[in-house]
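lol ok so funny story. i was supposed to be doing the assay writeup but got distracted and ended up predicting the structure for this chain instead. priorities right. anyway since i did it might as well share w the group, maybe its usefull for someone
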Amino acid sequence: MTQSSNSGVERKRSLAETVEAAMRFEYNAHRFYGSLKAIMGEAACELAGKLADEKFRNSMLLRDLADSAHARDHHEDMLPIPLSDRRFSGFTQIPVINDQPNCRDLLTFALGRERAAADQYAALAQNMPIGPIRDMFQRLADDEMRHAQELEKLDPNTVRKTTS
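and the output, tada:
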């Protein structure tokens, strides 16, 4: 689904802007998960490290996609903005993590981030013509859904790193 303005006109964004927003989201997710490694328990720390690495790779894949001849040919194509865009954009920023973080809240934030990204990328893939750009957004949507499922498996009571 796409957003409409108050005038009933469908809102759109260029492919270049869409890919840039996705790159920013993925890179900031990389930074977020990297910061969690120092404060999470063993299982959560391992997953955070894995997610940080995947998010960095995704940001690089999106950069490579943006630089590809196919994407350059379509940079100015206007795409409908999905309904999920506002929620997705809200998760682009990295939350401030204080000295005594509430790990349960961080886990909830991470889960929300993954679900918002899965919805956004699935909607973008659905609105793309068949080809490498659509394939990339569908792969990202599938990855984000898998990440959410992995986060859901963590026991919130064992997320915090224990101190000796």
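Strands lie at 12-14, 78-80. The longest helix spans residues 42-67.
back to the writeup now i swear
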